[in-house]
């Protein structure tokens, strides 16, 4: 009979674990016992790893509107999982074997990086249980290209323009942007480019082609197209009197308005018109279409965890190092297929079904789908009827612990290390 997935000698020592999968938002949890018997070690050995292959068609000229491309699934089986990760068994892959000494050393090292945690529980409490709580992580990355057009205007200073007389204006998806095309699955990139043959000269609507607009200070409330010259405003120094009153009862002529009681408009100098900011007093505008192109990656992540690892946040498993069971790349990925594991096939289907919506102004360039297994060991320690648990997660053996029994800062000291996941 085949051994369970990622089985090791510790499992025989502490007994075969039997957990029920608990529900978690955005995750699918098949029974662990079924997965353990359905996925063989040989199946893991032949699973694909990270692929740097870029389909050549992706780098072709983007000169047509978005159309569904042939759904050709790319699956690479290079054999093996890449570099040595340490702690593997003689079969080529297996969960890193941890004994009590290594477990305690990992916990002591983790506690040592927390300045307000005492090391006594890590050193003296008894390890009473070691359980395997392996977790499956599924991801779907959808790399899209989004295009939209905006109208740009600027003052027309004269000279030739690239208008429709030079040829038909290109559509948004007819632009060849091969020189700007980024690496696949980058988080975000944006570029702007002028659409050829889209320039045109228009009369400025703000000033009706005059290059000037009525002064908003002294020409308010007039009909469009009309203005008044030589409008004066009351002097703010003498309040329109033309004289400055003194305490002895005498008056002197206001120097600010020269005794007139009014001064020219400070905004336009009583000219009645000011410069039109839209056309810079030119009266004409040069307009053109600007294509705004964005490349970005939409991601879907799911976690399948046993009840023993239910208290660990999903983000911890997404950051952990695991072993990829499959990695496929295509224009539109389909669920992965495992010959002897219906439940892993179902988990893959759930990840694909949760594909994020693509905006109507975008097209899908490529997708990448991966399923990984993250080794997780739950360790329970006890002393005088007191218990606490922690987890050794991933191939790098990171420690996650939420309720350590010896904390002294209560969140008041500057370190605040207890708030971190790792």
Q: Unreliable segments (pLDDT under 50, ≥5 consecutive)?
A: 1-95, 416-422
Helix percentage range: 10-25%
Order of helices and strands: HHHEHHEEEEEEEEEEEHEHEEEE
Structural class by secondary-structure content: alpha+beta
Could you tell me the radius of gyration in angstroms? 36 Å
* Record field, number of beta strands: 17
Q: Which geometry do the CA atoms define?
A: elongated
Count up the helices: 7
Mean pLDDT: 74
Largest sheet: 7 strands, antiparallel
Furnish the topology, listing elements before pairings:
Elements: H1 9-14, H2 32-38, H3 41-45, E1 74-75, H4 100-112, H5 120-124, E2 126-132, E3 135-155, E4 188-194, E5 200-203, E6 212-214, E7 232-234, E8 243-245, E9 251-253, E10 262-264, E11 273-275, E12 284-304, H6 314-319, E13 323-330, H7 342-353, E14 362-374, E15 376-383, E16 386-393, E17 398-400
Antiparallel strand pairs: 1-13, 2-15, 3-12, 3-14, 4-12, 5-12, 6-11, 7-10, 8-9, 13-14, 15-16, 16-17
Protein name: Protein SSUH2 homolog
Organism: Aristolochia fimbriata
Overall description:
The protein is 13% helix and 28% strand. The chain has seven helices and 17 strands. The longest helix is centred in the N-terminal third of the chain and has 13 residues. The N terminus and C terminus are likely disordered.
Any descriptors?
single chain; 422 residues; alpha+beta; 7-stranded antiparallel sheet; 4-stranded antiparallel sheet; 7 helices; disordered N terminus
């Amino acid at each position: 009979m085949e051994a369970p997935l990622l089985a090791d000698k510790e499992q025989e020592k502490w007994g075969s674990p039997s957990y029920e999968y608990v529900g978690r938002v955005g995750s699918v949890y098949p029974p662990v016992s079924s997965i353990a018997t359905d996925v063989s070690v040989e199946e893991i050995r032949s699973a694909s790893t990270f692929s740097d292959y870029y389909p050549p068609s992706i780098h072709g000229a983007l000169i047509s509107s978005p159309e569904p491309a042939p759904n050709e699934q790319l699956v690479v089986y290079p054999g093996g999982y890449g570099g040595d990760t340490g702690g593997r068994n003689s079969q080529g892959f297996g969960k890193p074997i941890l004994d009590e000494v290594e477990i305690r050393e990992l916990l002591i090292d983790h506690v040592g990086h927390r300045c307000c945690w005492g090391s006594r529980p890590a050193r003296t409490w008894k390890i009473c249980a070691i359980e395997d709580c392996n977790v499956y992580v599924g991801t779907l990355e959808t790399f899209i290209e989004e295009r939209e057009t905006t109208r740009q205007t600027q003052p027309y200073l004269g000279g030739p323009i690239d208008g429709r007389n030079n040829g038909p204006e290109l559509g948004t998806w007819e632009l060849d942007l091969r020189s700007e095309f980024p690496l696949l699955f980058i988080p975000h990139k944006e570029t702007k480019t002028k659409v050829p043959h889209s320039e045109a000269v228009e009369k400025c609507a703000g000033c009706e082609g005059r290059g000037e607009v009525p002064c908003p200070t002294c020409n308010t409330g007039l009909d469009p197209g009309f203005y008044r010259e030589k409008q004066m405003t009351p002097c703010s120094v003498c309040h329109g009197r033309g004289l400055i009153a003194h305490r002895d009862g005498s008056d002197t002529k206001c120097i600010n308005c020269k005794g007139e009681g009014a001064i020219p408009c400070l905004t336009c100098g009583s000219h009645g018109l000011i410069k039109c900011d839209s056309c810079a007093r030119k009266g004409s505008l040069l307009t053109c279409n600007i294509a705004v192109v964005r490349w970005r990656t939409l991601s879907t992540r799911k976690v399948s965890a046993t009840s023993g690892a239910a208290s660990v946040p999903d983000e911890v498993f997404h950051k952990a190092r695991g072993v990829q069971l499959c990695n496929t790349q295509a224009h539109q990925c389909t669920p992965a297929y495992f010959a002897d594991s219906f439940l892993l096939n179902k988990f893959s289907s759930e990840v694909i079904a949760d594909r994020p919506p693509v905006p109507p102004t975008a097209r899908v360039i490529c997708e990448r789908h991966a399923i990984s297994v993250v080794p997780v060991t739950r360790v329970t320690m006890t002393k005088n009827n007191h218990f606490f648990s922690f987890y050794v997660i991933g191939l790098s053996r990171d420690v996650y612990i939420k309720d350590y029994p010896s904390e002294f800062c209560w969140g008041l000291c500057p370190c605040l290390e207890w708030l971190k996941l790792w």
